[in-house]
Amino acid sequence: MERLHSPIWTVRDAMQNLFRKMRKLFVFIFIFTGMMILFSYQDSPAFFGFPPLPAPEQYGNIMINRTSTAHNMKPVAFSHWSHRMHYTCRVCHLELEFYMQLNVTEITEEANKSGKFCGACHDGKIAFGHGKENCEKCHNGDMNFDMEKFAKLKDFPKTKFGNKIDWSAALQTGLINPRNFIFTAPADMSFDKTMELSAENFMIPPAVFPHKVHIQWLDCANCHPDVFNIKKKTTKHFSMSLCLKGEFCGLCHLKTAFPLNDCKRCHPDMSEDIK
């Protein structure tokens, strides 16, 4: 009892109690700071594993080299943005049977000359043909070939990522009017349902998927059922990590359509995009 009333022990007890509270406070600050660092890191390209973006005039350019080098030819430099002004994605990736994956489609010069693949348009009438005088227009191995044409797009609607052109806005405003078929007109594609997709990452708001925008460029068969199941929430393993490996949305939204870095285009409630 004497200890309880001793001024010395009263001060000691008060100090110990204060130290315990301060320790709890320090632990809280440590955890809180760690979480803030984690969330800050989560807003960085390194966290998501975004690939570095090329220069705007190169975004959407690919190098087709399935057999060119093997036949002592330079690879074919193909620009998506230059073709997108004239044709929708559906024309090449459905009617002309180009696979989405690079260097998978079995393109040959004989097939082109018979009117398949590139030869459906590059016949000397619609676009330049396959004569020897035109070989280097495609077989140049130069990702920057014909880049001066990109400068002519300076007045197109702007966005912050990819080649920094909002192609959907250009289409909707009539700035471009790409053909949607060459041989057979598509069936009615007026489906305009917008879907909400829950995010897998903590504190990331849901993504939205507008069918209306996509069917202006694509056919239903481009995505269903090989990439996405028809029924909602039945596509197994659909995740951001797999998108970043080129699956699901990443099939297009890594190198051709606006890149996944453009977060707010899919996650409109996010505070900012990933730089």
Q: Can you offer a commentary on this structure?
A:
By secondary structure, the chain is mainly alpha-helical. Among the domains are: 19-48; 61-155, Cytochrome C3 (Alpha-Beta Complex), CATH 3.90.10.10. 30% of the residues lie in helices and 6% in strands. The protein has 11 helices and 4 strands. The strands form 2 sheets. Strands 1-2 form a two-stranded antiparallel ribbon. It has a two-stranded antiparallel ribbon with strand order 3-4. The longest helix has 36 residues, at 7-42. The chain is elongated and about 105 Å long. The termini are far apart.
Q: What is the CATH H-level superfamily of the domain at 61-155?
A: Cytochrome C3
Portion of residues in helices? 25-40%
Topology order in helix (H) and strand (E) letters: HHEEHHHHHEEHHHH
Global Rg: 27 Å
Number of helices: 11
Biggest β-sheet strands, sense, barrel: 2 strands, antiparallel
Overall geometric form: elongated
Low-confidence stretches: 40-45
% residues in beta strands = 5-15%
- What is CATH's topology name of the domain at 61-155? Cytochrome C3
Query: Kindly, what is the distance between the CA atoms of the first and last residues, rounded to a whole number of angstroms?
Result: 66 Å
Structural class: mainly alpha
User: How many strand segments?
Assistant: 4
**So, CATH architecture of the domain at 61-155?**
Alpha-Beta Complex
